[in-house]
Amino acid sequence: MTKVMKIKKRSPRLSWNNAIEEYLLLKKAQGLRDITVKGHRNVMELFFKRHPDCWPYDVKEAVYRFMGEDIKPTTFNIRRNYMKQFFAWAVGEGYIDQNPMNDLKKRKDSGRVESLSEDEVRQLLLLPDRSTFAGLRDYGLLCFMLDTGARPKEAFSLRITDFNFPSSEVRITSEVAKTGVSRTLPLSPVTTQAVRLLIMVRHEMWSDEVPVFCTAEGTPLRNDTWGDRLEMYGKELSIKVHPYMLRHTFATLFLRAGGNALALQRLMGHSTLEMTKRYVHLNQADMRSQHAGASPMQKVAAKGMRMRAI
pLDDT of 76-95, one tens digit each? Predict the structure, then answer.
């Protein structure tokens, strides 16, 4: 009996612009958050704008050139993630024959984490002028981020109803969380008091829909605005401070104080333990440094102890 081979019918040629739009419609239908869809769009449009004539027959060479640029491992991995998904979809639709990303492995990130020391945190908290709304907001936001490790955009989206002051908790809803998974975070008494005071001085005309950490005009706080405020405070202390450094500081100090890595994963909203391990590795380095200065053998050796040859 003669075996009949099915020949896959190639889809008609589609411009890369239209291919991206068709792909993003699918992603939205799958429930991806707007910020994630935007990430897909940014990477794919950047690729095709640099290689506009590669679609659909010369994609592989263009991909290798694009991914071979002098970029950081983190940037490489972000591009790889978005592009691999897009080209897998394109193969399934018959627009291209194979996924050019399959031969590109994820690059190892050095995982360097910038964080503040406890002394720097104390000094930073003294800087906001709490006689003004902006200063009171800055103080409350500093307390909040250093107490919870929340992502800046998660903090900027919080409403009054997200806080449960009797139980000293805050709810990061699935609509706000980067991973799309909600989580409840405990708050320290200092943070609870700072946030309650900030809410008390809000303009009486502001509705509950106005974010807790907003501008003096009641508009949502932007990451670049918050970054400028932190840069201003950092200059006063002669240190560098940026929004995500507060999240890194929370994680680092949490582990130094004996916090559990699995608990840290849930608090920070990491989808896997892989990201949390960056902070665990940093903590191991801290332990080695402390061991070097506090080890009993180091002290004994410093007093002139010599090992006898065997």
Answer: 988 999 999 999 999 999 99
Residue in 231, 258, 262 with CA at minimum distance from that of residue 246: 231
DSSP 51: S
Whole-angstrom Cα distance, residue 267 to residue 213? Answer: 20
Q: What is the pLDDT of residues 186-209, one digit of tens each?
A: 999 999 999 999 999 999 999 999
The single-letter DSSP state of residue 9 is P
Q: What is the CA radius of gyration of the chain?
A: 25
pLDDT of residue 31: 86
What is the per-residue pLDDT across 230-270, written as a single tens digit (0 to 9) for each?
999 999 988 889 998 999 999 888 888 888 888 889 898 88
Q: Please state, in angstroms and as integers, the Cα–Cα distance from residue 65 to each residue in 60, 74, 157, 200, 201, following that order.
A: 9, 17, 38, 55, 55
- HEC letters along 227-267: HHHHHHHHHHHCCCCCHHHHHHHHHHHHHHCCCCHHHHHHH
| Maximum separation of any 2 CA atoms in the chain, in Å | 90
Q: How far is CA 33 from CA 29, 60, 69, 107, in A?
A: 10, 29, 29, 26
Main-chain dihedrals φ then ψ at residue 21, nearest 5 degrees: -65, -40
* CA distance readout (Å), 233 to 66, 136, 222: 38, 14, 17
Per the structure block, which two tokens stand in for 92? 């399934």
